[in-house]
Amino acid sequence: MNATTPSKNNDFRLGITLSLIANAVWGSAAFYWLETKPVDSIDVLANRGAWTLPAVLLVLIISQRVASVGRLLREPRVWVVMFVAAALITINWGVFLYAVTHGKATEASLGYFLLPILSVVIGMMFFKEQPSVPQKVAIAMGLVAIAVQLFAVGSIPFIALALSLSFAVYGAIRKMIQADAIEGLFIESLFLFPAGLCWIVLHDGAGLFQHGLKVDIFLMLSGAFTAIPLITHVTAARLLPLSTIGLLSYVGPTLQLIVAQLVLKEDTPVLTLVSLGIVWCGLAFIVVDNLHLLRRFKKWQ
Questions:
Q1: CA distance to 3, 17, 118, 218, per residue, from 263 (Å)
Q2: Gap between the Cα atoms of 234 and 230, Å rounded
Q3: pLDDT tens, 73-91?
Q4: Using one digit for the tens of pLDDT, what is the confidence trace for 19-34?
Q5: What whole-number distance in Å separates Cα of residue 13 and Cα of residue 42?
Q6: What whole-number distance in Å separates Cα of residue 250 and Cα of residue 116?
Q7: pTM value surpassing 0.85
Q8: Rounded to whole angstroms, how far apart are CA atoms 183 and 72?
Q9: What's the CA gap between 161 and 270, in Å, rounded?
Q10: Spans of all domains in the chain
Q11: Can you say whether the dihedral through the CA atoms of 226, 249, 163, 37 is positive or negative?
């Protein structure tokens, strides 16, 4: 027992480090995508789709997991499910790119704070999951936050809802097949690559070789930028309890909000910040509930 404790402690520290790296990359992603200006958001999206496939394929080759993906691709159901998943992740990427390049990074962070609440709702609707009382409170507070945002800007927060809904449904769709994040991203990339490549060819390079070497580098490395935090996140998820991963996942949108307010200097209505505060309170109920479940699980082990 004593011999395994240092190993477990090392795994825990490594998991924390990798998860923080992943969420730091996601939270500061606005800096990366702003470097692709003046390329249009849809052109950046096409490049991201095209360059993700070779980046993820390289990871699969290095990790010797090509054969496992090959087995998945023999199932017709996998192709159908992953086509839908690819469409949803494209929407998510596109909306986020638009948000961070058009002064809407704060609303984007609101979307990712709403994500765990919407995931509970989807679990209720499609997987017959019964929410606990704290989860019901969190859902109610999420609805209040949307109402406050509606009052603050006079319209529905479409960016926040599009980001959170697309990713929440994406997560639910991905539960239908037994593929981890890297394998799934590769299969999705099989759909994204031809679409992105066609767009690049038909639109004179979609920003490539038009705005200098720096922009070209950021466009061509967009696939690696997509894959690297995902790889570190998946590795961390294998080393840490899910409750810990859930808590660390809030680092990303928190950094997004900090970047939007302090670095990008976005002019955000006070009521929008109030709506964020309401969402945080709702998330606190979910966090406490998850910690309570974890303690009960450990008690019965």
A1: 47, 24, 29, 20
A2: 6
A3: 999 999 999 999 999 999 9
A4: 889 889 998 999 999 9
A5: 39
A6: 10
A7: no
A8: 9
A9: 19
A10: 5-300
A11: negative
